[in-house]
Amino acid sequence: MTPDLARTVIRTNTTAIGAVMVHRGEAESLICGTYGQYLWHLTYIRQILALGGGCGRWGHCR
């Protein structure tokens, strides 16, 4: 993803905005999916909250 595209996504996509807030510790959870398909939302969440650092499950990675 290019920096320009990333800026556009963060400016216009509420799922991506929420995932960034969770990643930065500004929010504890994220509710999304009021429209669109599950995998569409999950794509943004996985890209932003990628598992790493020995995390084995979503939601247990702090």
Automatic annotation (TrEMBL):
Record's keyword terms, sorted: Oxidoreductase
EC identifiers of the protein: 1.1.1.40
Annotated SUPFAM superfamilies: Isocitrate/Isopropylmalate dehydrogenase-like
Domain of life per record: Bacteria
Signal peptide span: none
Domain Phosphate acetyl/butaryl transferase stretches: 1-55
UniProt entry tagged with the keyword S-adenosyl-L-methionine: no
InterPro entries for the chain: P_AcTrfase_dom1, PTA_PTB
Protein name: NADP-dependent malic enzyme
Organism: Rubellimicrobium mesophilum DSM 19309
